[in-house]
Amino acid sequence: MTTQVKHLIGGEYTDGCGEQQILVTNPADNGPIAQLNCATEAEVNQAVASAKSAQQQWRETPVSDRARLMLRYQHLLKENHDRIAKVLAQETGKTIADAKGDVWRGIEVAEQAANIASMMMGETAENVARGIDTYSYIQPLGVCAGITPFNFPAMIPLWMFPMAIACGNGFVLKPSEQDPMTPMLLAQLFEEAGAPKGLLNVVHGAKEVVDGILTHPDIKAISFVGSVPVGQYIYKTGTENLKRVQAFAGAKNHMVVMPDADKDTVINQLVGASVGAAGQRCMAISVAVFVGESKQWIPELKEALAKVRPGLWDDEEAGYGPLINPAAKARVLELIQAGKEEGANCLLDGSDFTVEGYESGNWVGPTLFSGVTPEMRIYKEEIFGPVLCTTEVETLADAIALINANPFGNGTSIFTNSGAAARKYQHEIEVGQVGINVPIPVPLPFFSFTGWKNSFYGDLHAYGKQAVRFYTETKTITARWPESGIVAGQNLTIALK
Prior knowledge:
CATH architecture of the largest domain: 3-Layer(aba) Sandwich
Largest sheet: 7 strands, mixed
InterPro entries: Ald_DH/histidinol_DH, Ald_DH_C, Ald_DH_CS_CYS, Ald_DH_N, Aldehyde_DH_dom, MeMal-semiAld_DH
Strand content: 15-25%
Number of strands: 23
Structural class: alpha/beta
Strand order of the largest sheet: 15-16-17-14-13-19-20
Oligomer: single chain
Organism: Ferrimonas sediminicola
Number of domains: 2
GO biological process, one term: L-valine catabolic process
CATH superfamily of the largest domain: Aldehyde Dehydrogenase, Chain A, domain 1
Radius of gyration: 25 Å
EC number: 1.2.1.27
Protein name: methylmalonate-semialdehyde dehydrogenase (CoA acylating)
């Protein structure tokens, strides 16, 4: 018997009235594990109305009390860390180690939300003109919404609603319909932490529900993480409806390997950064750029990748799990085949990999291509699978030119023992997040997640200080209080000399 995934609307858990049903399947064997009824237009409207009503009181809650809610919430998340990770692993197919990392990175953002008081401070200047002072307040927008992807069902919702709500807003979350049970558990724990009923609402569904969010007049800001086509649609439709939008989209992340780098470190880091989480992360390294003599390490990289074995979520020896669904697997296999046909060297082919007893799962083994050029589809398209492409260049300048010509700019890294090379790279590269001897440079949440180019549509990024700016408005006051207005008399004022 499958689990019925609930909606959370107005503080009540409901099956929903929508006629369209979606089956949630186990990526390891594609068997059903849950089902959900897509929210109706009326239910989306009810969720927004609930968030709006709750927000009217919440915005008057002292910022210190909002911070205390987040303190209680992050404590509950930590207490339930392993429980959340187990649910997450079972519905995404991630290994338990990957699932725990997913949860923990979300907890870090909830911790940062507990620091909201200092981030909500405005500015002030005395005597901007004679007898006139100017100061500013940071105030909430109203109702905000989040549309989140399948690949990080704990981390990415926690990027959004804790910061938005800590800023004084109400929130409507539309998680991925492919793994909705983890976000629902996050919402339950948020209510247990003492959140006012109706402040956080969760609705499930497909495009119709998304469109209801994008066009609703009471939603002021929308956060999204997902693919490029959907990100562009979200950004265009949301802004056409006069909403503030941050849309995090696709990536093609390069790791530059200099000849002076430590070979063993490079190979170990590259293996995990490319096929970890089955390559289903927007910060995965999908292209390794070997500079000069470092290309001689490619055969040893192949040997290391060949040792990685995918497996079930509770298999402690598994390097990663299955892809999320059959369509994702089919797309990855099609791109692997295209790479072969376009002339890349397939040094390691995981197309036929299966796990015994789970042959119907969405498995793809580690795959390695060399001799990849920018004209090939496996270079131009985001594969989102356990596939690593390598290309070889002669100089660091060649590597920088190659990466800067790419339309994506989410993350990149360089491995080198040269401070000068690292300094040149970080200064000249046109990518938003740069790692130096760090393969996946996702910043901790007191900074912001800062993808560039076609990896991001909008102006203000996720979490950190930029998230506070995204979820708030600034009100500036210019005030004059003439001294002639001071009321004189006994017990009313202090006489001026």
